[in-house]
Amino acid sequence: MKNNRIIIMFLSLGFVLFSSCEGQETNNDLAYANIDSGLLNQAEGLPMRIPNDSMMLQELIDPVLQSKLLAEINKVPKWKRLVSNKKMAIGIVDLTDVNNIRFARINGNHMMYAASLPKIAVLLAATDALENGELEETADVKADMKIMISKSNNAATTRMIDRVGFQKIESVLTSDRYSLYDEEQGGGLWVGKRYASGGATNREPIKNLSHAATVTQVCRFYYLLAQGKLVTQERSKQMLEIMEDPALHHKFVNTLDKIAPHARLFRKSGSWKSYHSDSVLVWGKDPDRRYILVALIDDSNGEQIIRNLVVPIERALRK
């Protein structure tokens, strides 16, 4: 009987130890799973981390992507004619592989009137002013910054321009840090007029445009933003939040709503008379659908052309 009790005690002790160890292994597995999941979410999120982030976007032009982009555009005679007449410019940045960022552009440094698209320049200047204590971060300011982008509200944009001033906008765009407007590179992003009648102006020096852009510089804006390099990483996140989920569902967004309904979209567009522009950072759940796309078009049918660009552009991006 005594021996039986000893055996039972040893068996019970063994069971307890086994259960304890088994539980410990399960907890460790969960801990490692949580760590791996955290790293995965971090890697897939924005801002993104690019190993060779010191290279300028213009240094990342990819001959294969450039060739595919040209081939897709040349399939449509009207698009080919618009490109030839400098009335259509396109820029794309492939973000699917952080170790192989690819850039392609057509009429990349050709500056055009871009209507409301350059409001992203006001957003950058205002965010820089907030960070440097030059502008108070009030509820009204934050509300205006949001609807200036999501709804392209002209009154809100004009209030933001009045708050920061044209000189602040120009100094940020032409700074060595960003060089989003560079006379030696054909110009770029510029805002030199309120989005309202009247008031002082500060037109850009090359073509005397009030609201201007080149696809190369707009691509650079999004590329820097996607890396958290505009102002600070936290301020870049704030700008991404402002630019996400656009309230206007036309142009690029009209098509992306259909073919990629679950993708995150960060976007700003513009239209005035025959001038139509759009720009978007597409961040799909599928890692193979992550890119920047910018188009500037001077044509009465520009809005529809921009809608029709998305599918052929995605074909060009496929490796």
How is this structure best summarized?
The protein is of the alpha+beta class and 319 residues long. 49% of the residues lie in helices and 16% in strands.
Describe it:
With 319 residues, this protein is of the alpha+beta class. It folds into two domains: 1-44; 53-317, Beta-lactamase (3-Layer(aba) Sandwich), CATH 3.40.710. The protein is 49% helix and 16% strand. Strands 2-1-10-9-8 form a five-stranded antiparallel sheet, sandwiched between helices. Strands 3-7-6 form a three-stranded antiparallel sheet. It is globular and about 45 Å long. The N and C termini lie far apart (76 Å). The relative contact order is 0.14.
Specify the structural class. alpha+beta
By CATH's scheme, which homologous superfamily of the largest domain applies?
Answer: DD-peptidase/beta-lactamase superfamily
CATH class of the largest domain: Alpha Beta
Q: Based on the structure given, which CATH architecture of the largest domain is correct?
A: 3-Layer(aba) Sandwich
Helix content: 40-55%
Domains (count)? 2
Order of secondary-structure elements: HHHEEEHHHHEEEEHHHEEEH
Strand order of the largest sheet: 2-1-10-9-8
Distance between the first and last residues' Cα: 76 Å
Main sheet properties = 5 strands, antiparallel
CATH fold node name of the largest domain: Beta-lactamase
Q: Give the overall shape.
A: globular
In round numbers, the mean pLDDT is 89
The Cα radius of gyration reads 25 Å
As residue ranges, the low-confidence spans are: 1-43
Number of strands: 10
What fraction strand? 15-25%
State the helix count: 11
